[in-house]
Design a protein that fits this description.
There is one protein chain. The radius of gyration is 19 Å and the shape is globular. The longest helix is centred in the first third of the chain and has 17 residues. The strands form 2 sheets. It has a 6-stranded parallel β-sheet with strand order 3-5-6-7-8-9. A 3-stranded parallel β-sheet has the order 1-2-4. The chain has a single domain, classed as Metal-dependent hydrolases (TIM Barrel, Alpha-Beta Barrel). Helix 1 packs across helix 2. The protein is 39% helix and 14% strand. It contains 11 helices and 9 strands. The chain is α/β, with parallel strands linked by helices and 280 residues long. Bound molecules: fe (ii) ion. Fe (ii) ion binds next to loops.
C-alpha cells in the first residue's frame, strides 16, 4: 500500500489541485473547452491527476449554477478522455464570502468541494467581513468546514497573519496559492505565504489557475519552493493527503496553528537599548 503514491512516480510529489478555474465558459477562467484541455495538459505535464474545478460564485456577478457547471463538467471530462488526458476533474465553487452561503447551498445554486463537507470561501482582497466568525460558526453547526482560499493575498492578513490564526481556531481551514510562493502577487504576499506555512496555518495548496499561460502553470517549480518551507510529511498532507480527504469527504488531521510573533527589527533593538522608545 502506498497512500501518498510517491513511489509510483519516483521523487515527484503527487498533487491534487483543490482550486482551479479549468471549467470553461463560466467565469474568468478557461474560455472554451480547447483552453480547458490546454490547462489539463499542463496538469498532466506536472503529474497532477485530479483537480477540483472551483468556478467563482459571486452574488449578481458570477452566478453560474451548480446544474449548469455540472453539465459542462461532464462535457469536459468526456473531452479529456477523448484526448487521452489522464486528469479527473471534480466540481466545486470558489464562493465569495456572504452570510447567504447556506441559503445558496440549500437552493442548489452552489457546490461544496466534490459535494463534501468542505467549502472553498473567498475573502475580499482588502478586508475581513465583520460577520466572518458568525459565518464559520453557522457553517460548522450545519456540518460544513470552510476553507479560506488564498489567505496570504488578503491585505489584512498580510498586515497581521494572526487574523487567520483566529479563524483557524474557530474551525476554518486554509488553502495557499502555489504562485504566491513564486512572488506572482508581490513580495508581501510571498512572505505572508511563507509565514502561514511555517505556522501550521495552511492545510491545502492549489494553483488557482485561470488560463494556460503564466506563472500558475509552473506547478513543479512551486512545489520545489514549497519543499524548502515544509517537512516531507507536511508536504504530502497539504499537496495530496488532505485534498484526497476532501474528495472522499473524510475529516483531516490538523496540527495546531502557531501564533505569529513579529520579529523585532535591529533598529527597534537599538532604540530600546538607548531608551529612545518603540512600542512596548
Ligand atoms: Fe480562484
Amino acid at each position: 500500500m502506498n497512500p501518498g503514491g510517491r513511489g509510483e512516480r519516483g521523487s515527484e510529489q503527487p498533487m491534487i489541485d483543490v482550486h482551479s478555474h479549468i471549467l470553461p465558459m463560466v467565469d474568468d477562467g478557461a474560455e472554451d473547452i480547447e483552453e480547458a484541455i490546454e490547462i489539463a495538459r499542463i496538469y498532466e505535464e506536472n503529474g497532477v491527476e485530479k483537480a477540483i474545478a472551483t468556478p467563482h460564485f459571486i452574488e449578481g456577478t458570477n452566478s453560474s449554477t451548480k446544474e449548469k457547471n455540472s453539465a459542462i463538467l461532464d462535457r469536459l471530462n468526456e473531452a479529456l478522455a477523448d484526448n487521452g488526458i489522464n486528469l479527473r476533474v471534480y466540481l466545486g465553487n470558489e464562493i465569495y464570502v456572504t452570510m447567504d452561503v447556506l441559503k445558496y447551498l440549500k437552493d442548489g445554486l452552489i457546490s461544496s468541494l466534490n459535494s463534501s463537507r468542505y467549502l472553498l470561501i473567498e475573502l475580499p482582497m482588502l478586508d475581513i467581513p465583520l460577520y466572518i466568525e458568525q459565518l464559520i460558526y453557522q457553517l460548522l453547526l450545519k456540518g460544513y468546514v470552510p476553507v479560506i482560499a488564498h489567505p496570504e493575498r488578503n491585505a489584512r492578513i498580510v498586515e497581521n497573519p494572526n487574523i487567520l490564526y483566529d479563524l483557524i481556531t474557530k474551525g476554518a481551514l486554509a488553502q495557499l496559492n502555489l504562485p504566491s510562493l513564486e512572488g506572482m502577487y508581490g513580495e508581501e504576499v510571498k512572505s505572508t505565504g511563507e509565514i502561514l506555512l511555517k505556522h501550521n496555518m495552511i492545510h491545502f495548496v492549489g494553483t488557482d489557475i485561470h488560463m494556460p499561460h503564466g506563472m500558475a502553470s509552473k506547478i513543479k517549480r512551486s512545489i520545489e519552493i514549497l519543499k524548502s518551507f515544509t517537512d516531507l510529511e507536511t508536504l504530502d498532507r497539504i499537496t495530496n493527503i488532505n485534498s484526497q480527504c476532501i474528495l472522499d469527504n473524510k475529516p483531516i488531521e490538523v496540527d495546531s496553528p502557531i501564533q505569529y510573533k513579529k520579529q523585532r527589527s535591529f533598529l527597534y533593538f537599538l532604540k530600546s537599548k538607548l531608551n529612545l522608545g518603540g512600542d512596548k
